[in-house]
Design a protein that fits this description.
Helix content: 40-55%
Number of helices: 11
CATH topology of the largest domain: Four Helix Bundle (Hemerythrin (Met), subunit A)
CATH superfamily of the largest domain: CRISPR-associated endonuclease Cas1, C-terminal domain
Structural class: alpha/beta
Shape: globular
Order of helices and strands: EEEEEEHEEHHHHHHHHHEEH
Number of domains: 2
């Protein structure tokens, strides 16, 4: 499966029978509809035919419109969804009982275990050439494991009782995780800690783009197709326009899909530090990241989506587990399963 990315001014997406046609100047590419699973437009100067959009919707192909930063501002999906009304009713009710706390804990525990395992993996990979750094990374991973145990021990009647404690533990782990990652990034990249919306430094801008332009739309689609309401979350507090459940479920996939890829791109010098940010005409267009960086992020994260892994006794692509996790949330809410097992990969 492939993704059509429209990132250049003057790009046009049309259709020819059962194929998408992408044109820019004299260049033309065609994509068979059955081989496309999503379309992402990050350019303010791209155009679409209504026929192309109709072809996408008829074939359940999600169309995402995003700013140059990667932040989506619109998602086009079919009106018909799977799942039942009962799932959403139970989702709303679960906020006020133990189910909401169990799910919130699961999302955080998945995030923490993946953070710890990423650090341990990097420690293992560096042990031969830099034992001191490897020891520091492994120790940081063990510290996050201890926080994980604290989260696991939390008991309460609903999420409101424990949200503050849960968020404080998550924040403590995040400080350890990002501080540790800064040790393996080039000093020239200037990474001093995690910044979310509006970040202009290279690594945070790459993280934000990967999370927002690639991971967010996939989780959004999975949540909707599982019959869940994307705005009714458990870990992330309610706020108008905030897709809290999507942000909840994203937590257990950020490290293994986005963080790991971006660290590899930088540490293996696939992307040079001084080429990450947009400059010249690209910056004048309003871009934060260079076109070269955006292209590398898209291609490598899409490749990571399709990597086969083993989780919960099943071997499949990482991307397929996003959908199975959303379905697991739905089954848990309606009583089809007695627990929620967060997505975690070993090291």
């Amino acid at each position: 499966m492939s993704m059509i990315v429209l990132d250049d001014f003057g790009t046009y997406l049309g259709k020819k029978r059962n194929r998408f046609v992408v044109r820019k100047g004299d260049e033309k590419r065609e994509f068979q509809v059955e081989k496309v699973d999503s379309i992402i437009c990050t350019s303010m100067g791209a155009a679409f035919s209504s026929g192309a959009l109709n072809l996408a919707i008829k074939n359940n192909i999600q169309v995402v419109f995003a700013h140059y930063s990667g932040q989506p501002y619109a998602i086009l999906m079919p009106m018909s969804m799977t799942g039942s009304v009962r799932t959403r009713r139970e989702q709303f009710l679960a906020y006020n009982d133990e189910r909401g706390l169990i799910l919130a804990k699961g999302f955080v525990m998945g995030k923490l275990k993946n953070q710890a395992n990423i650090l341990k993996l990097m420690a293992k990979n560096r042990k031969a050439r830099d034992k001191v750094l490897a020891d520091r990374l492994y120790h940081a991973g063990r510290m996050i494991d201890e926080i994980y145990d604290h989260v696991d021990s939390l008991v309460g009647c609903n999420i409101d009782e424990k949200r503050l404690e849960l968020m404080n533990l998550e924040a403590e782990a995040a400080r350890t995780y990002w501080r540790s990652l800064s040790l393996i990034l080039p000093e020239k990249i200037g990474f001093d800690g995690r910044e979310t919306r509006g970040a202009r430094d290279p690594f945070n801008a790459m993280l934000n783009f990967g999370y927002q332009a690639l991971l967010f739309p996939e989780v959004w689609k999975a949540v909707c197709y599982a019959g869940l309401d994307p705005y009714a979350g458990f870990l992330h507090a309610d706020r108008p326009g905030k897709p809290s459940l999507v942000l909840d479920l994203m937590e257990e996939f950020r490290q293994q899909i986005v963080d790991r890829v971006l660290i590899t791109l930088i540490s293996k010098r696939i992307i040079k530090v001084d080429e990450i940010l947009a400059a010249g005409e690209e910056a004048a267009e309003g871009r934060i990241l260079s076109k070269k960086t955006v292209k590398a992020i898209f291609s490598n994260i899409l490749e990571r989506f399709n990597v086969q892994v083993v989780f919960n006794g099943r071997r499949a692509s990482i991307k397929s587990f996003i959908y199975s996790q959303a379905r697991m949330v739905a089954r848990f809410l309606v009583g089809g399963s007695s627990s929620y097992i967060p997505f975690v990969l070993g090291w």
